[in-house]
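@channel sequence for tomorrow's demo:
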Amino acid sequence: MTDLPIRKVLQKPNVAGRMVRWAIEVSEFDIQYEPRGPIKGHVYADFMVELSSATTHQEGADFRWVLSVDGSSNQQGSGAGVILEGLNGLLIDQTLRFAFKANINQAEYEALIAGMMLAKEMGAKGLLAKSDSLLVTGQVTGEYQAKDPQMAAYLEYVQVLKDMFEVFKLVHVPRNKMPELTY
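structure tokens (generated this afternoon):
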């Protein structure tokens, strides 16, 4: 059994060159194509085992998860990229495309919120978040005021999420120092 695409070779003798000779040589052995079958269940089971071993921990241990977020907005739409790095080299990369119009600052907040919620779902107790948005990091750390009502609502929600972690820190990282986020 194999999941290689040799079915076409075995059924179509009109391919060129060496493949024709190979098909003729193989045809005398009465080889038939049989698909491998679904392996999704195995992949899912392996993923769950890996994930559960990465999130199990000893009582009282302070785990440090690192979150990198970036929002994007242009004429075609808006979205976000989220990378969460956890225990034992666990790396979760998410791409979000928003079904609503958002400016760049709203997209940055949405990215941060999505990343924080993901980290909480993964059982993170301590989170270091990195963003290239000076406005968002300044508002969350208290250096800037959120004068716009929408930005104030985003800031309030981030403050609520922040309290769900034992340790939380948001730092500004220049765009050229951020990991490559694709979205």
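heads up for whoever presents: The chain has a mean pLDDT of 77.
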